[in-house]
Description:
The protein is mostly beta strands. The protein has one domain. The chain contains one helix and nine strands, in the order βββββββββα. Strand 1 (5-10) and strand 2 (17-22) form a beta hairpin. The longest helix is centred in the last third of the chain and has 8 residues, at 133-140. Mean pLDDT is 87; it is low at 144-153.
Amino acid sequence: MDKTATIFETHPVSKKEARFEDLGHSAWLYLTRPNSPVVVADAWIYNRIPAPSETEIVQFKTASPPAVASYAHVNAEFTPLQSDKFELKWSPDGRSVALLINGIPFGFIPPGVPRGYSKHLIKTGPWGHKWDEELYTILFNESSWTDTIPSFF
Length: 153
């Protein structure tokens, strides 16, 4: 994958667009409103650089900064290889999207939250939520998933 790369896809039912962007210092997954470029949710996926400290983060003049060391897992620094396969995985209704790298989910955005979930977060905070395997399974399991979605969605 290039140092800065983007993949995107529109769900045929929900008409929401999912976009994954590797910005060179960090990578993020975004989800838009239906039939709109307006982003309503995001999920930090990984850093391409060592996690900065809280005092160093001010140097990143971007809405999508790398996660700081106090939130990022020690293995959150990731440099994709040309051979790595990136793909978007949608929930059946198109309201949730996940990013998979080589078939492994790295992060996802459920419906109704502005910040998604990441396997590389050690705690919930400004970069999103710590990984929730049960919620991921509920949203993206293609068999009988609608029976188990909590009513608040």
